[in-house]
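--- STAGE predict ---
source: upstream dedup step, 1 unique chain passed
mode: sequence only
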Amino acid sequence: MSAFNPNTKKLAVCIAELEKFRKARGLDEKAIISSLDLPDLWQTEQLAVSNVPGGFNKIILPFFTDGPATFYISSAGPYTKVPKHSHDEGAGIRVIMSGSIIYNDKELKEGDWMYLKAGAPYEFTVGPRGVSMFYCYQCCCA
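--- STAGE serialize ---
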């Protein structure tokens, strides 16, 4: 078995590649995006990562943060409403672990994600089975 070295590309190179991808796809750098906006993500050659241990498939998600972040897990019951708000201090990502949320008339389900730019207002309603989410923000949302 050969050694695996994940340190073959500098962060600045990855960020430049992500910026190029976003520009080519017309993704607004100030807009919230989700996995539903990029349904071909796993088939997108520009985001494929080949430097992985055997047996893995990996893609880089089309966003990045710049600075420290905090990490959370939360859950809520069916049809709980989260009123319009924004995270002004920094960007964040939510990953649906189970259940769903309805955002912009789209249902994000288990495995889906949404990336939130700093200051971008949003609201959502929890789906009929409730939700458990992992999220990371560049702010203290405690």
